[in-house]
Amino acid sequence: MEKGCRFGTHRVLEPQGVLPQAAVKIDNTMTIRANEILVDVTALNIDSASFRQLEEEAGHDMEKVKAKILAIVSQRGKMQNPVTGSGGMLMGKVAKIGEDLKGKIDLQEGDALATLVSLSLTPLKIEEIKGIKPEIDRVEVKAQAILFESGLYAKLPADLPENLVLAALDVAGAPAQTAKLVKPGDRVLILGAGGKSGMMCCYEAMKRVGPTGWVVAADRGEASRDLLLKNGFCHAYFAEDATKPVAVLEKALEANHQEEYDIAINVVNVQNTEMSTILPVKDKGIVYFFSMATSFTKAALGAEGVGKDVTMVIGNGYTKGHAEITLQELRESPKLREIFERLYL
Amino acid sequence: MEKGCRFGTHRVLEPQGVLPQAAVKIDNTMTIRANEILVDVTALNIDSASFRQLEEEAGHDMEKVKAKILAIVSQRGKMQNPVTGSGGMLMGKVAKIGEDLKGKIDLQEGDALATLVSLSLTPLKIEEIKGIKPEIDRVEVKAQAILFESGLYAKLPADLPENLVLAALDVAGAPAQTAKLVKPGDRVLILGAGGKSGMMCCYEAMKRVGPTGWVVAADRGEASRDLLLKNGFCHAYFAEDATKPVAVLEKALEANHQEEYDIAINVVNVQNTEMSTILPVKDKGIVYFFSMATSFTKAALGAEGVGKDVTMVIGNGYTKGHAEITLQELRESPKLREIFERLYL
């Protein structure tokens, strides 16, 4: 077996020189290289922006959606919506593991898995579309796909329902990074704490700061106050609009005995919340931006403008073990699991 | 003396609740609070985007530019170009230090300084514009300004020419962060190494990695190869277009004995160079983005797409002592100083 590029560039057909995600056409031949994994695919979870676009273009005719998906995959070698550019993820069973990877990764042939890299870069060949469930953007298929050596996946655990696992993996990056970042005794501020990602970050921060730390949760309104405080997901809570830095700073300091924070984590899904995250943090502290609404220049120039010597980190959706760390939260905390099952399934 | 907010929010007139930079009008009364500094201003260095806009609007009539600057400052209380939003910096002498700061900072009344925070947030009152030097975007004035407690400045040293100091302070953030980030033995990749900022980062990286480290410089063309290698500012050099991640990865590994890097520093001033910075770095390594052309989402989603467990940092223009660290480079290295005087004055 020949070895391929760990990022899959050997399958890029056009244009040359780019990574598979940026390619318009990739090679979906289902013969694996020594460092690839072949997956028998049972379902595609289409990215919701992509699914909505397909549905609208097809006038909500599911047969037309099916035909469009088949056309895209046959043309591009991957399920990347040409309008939205986005993909989704897939579920299936490991059919074959390349000889270079066998025994070196925590997968065995036959394992059930979900991919954590986008369909927009995953070689895919569909034999048959068996059904579409538009209410959950799911396409049931008989298909095969290739995972590159750099490709991320999560084994689907036997002890948790599949839908719960998928809902949690959707935001796996932020809580896992929180777990690695937060140290005992830290004072941590979490902006956007009421959302799915924010709640998991709060839970993880509480666990990591231990008895000497202090976790303050904030969100726009009062809706999440009781949920977070009563379940012990934070020590204190305040409600404020995260686009108002001066007001956030005042309330954040008040909630932390007038002291600055070691770490602030931003999971707010609106623009212009950079300064609210930067101001409450002490010099040499860490500002973690997980929101995709973050502006690089607003953060960089903003911190300089107020003379804040803080380390600002771009939230990486991947960190080693992120899926395991996140699923473990649901096993550990019946309260968190109950909230998840109630709100996100 | 009453104390003000360290970020200067007590001087925001409208709209309420924002920081001075975002305000359309701030209070430029030249009576200082206990934690403010009064500066007798001799010159404004207008941001080049702002100066160009003013010049064009005025049809290159310098009397009209003068009148426009006076109008902006009288209306806004600060020299923030309403079209570009940008400011610049100022030079002057310390006239008075508020009682809370006196003896606690490294400034004395009479010291010459340059501000390192933008004019777009600095209270300013102009008595007279004495002259304009359009070739260096400089406006000579009789004026006064206020520095907030959080405001950054650099004392102008007696042993270096003012123009050299200003050229270096312009990019002070990146080399100072490099100095703090790079450790002995590190393998460091610098993309955009041929520019002013890149060259200073190279110099600083070479100093910090010591005899066991390895610094690789890269830029688009061959123009900087000799300059960087002959002056000992890097161990190896390669030329590649930073928007081509696969090509950059191959050349970067080749230049580093086929190993991944501990740290990559991006000071490339074009878009779409995120993946070229991320791919050559090893897991748990650091990716430092200093380019204002960096896209937050491209970095975040890109690292996840290739399963890279790297820490990606937003380049903060400020870190403690950044001006001193940067000026020290010019004192230490006659070669660097000679290049600076030749290329950037």
> Can you say what the CATH homologous superfamily of the largest domain in chain A is?
NAD(P)-binding Rossmann-like Domain
Say what the CATH topology of the largest domain in chain A is: Rossmann fold
Tally of helical segments of chain A: 11
Structural class by SSE content of chain A: alpha/beta
Report what the structure shows.
Chains A, B: It holds the Pfam family KDD_N. The structure is a homodimer of 345-residue chains. Chain A has 345 residues and is α/β, with parallel strands linked by helices. Chain A has two domains: 9-156, no CATH class; 173-344, 3-Layer(aba) Sandwich (Rossmann fold), CATH 3.40.50. Chain A is built from eleven helices and 14 strands. Chain A has helices spanning 48-57, 62-76, 162-169, 173-181, 196-209, 225-230, 245-254, 274-278, 296-305, 322-332, 334-343, and strands spanning 12-14, 25-26, 37-46, 88-97, 112-115, 124-133, 138-147, 153-155, 187-191, 214-219, 236-239, 261-266, 281-289, 311-314. A six-stranded antiparallel sheet of chain A has the order 6-7-3-4-5-8. Chain A has a six-stranded parallel sheet with strand order 11-10-9-12-13-14, with helices on both faces. A two-stranded antiparallel sheet of chain A has the order 1-2. In chain A, helix 6 (225-230) links the parallel strand 10 and strand 11 (236-239). The longest helix of chain A is centred in the N-terminal third of the chain and has 15 residues, at 62-76. Chains A and B meet through helix 7, helix 9 and strand 14 of A and helix 7, helix 9 and strand 14 of B.
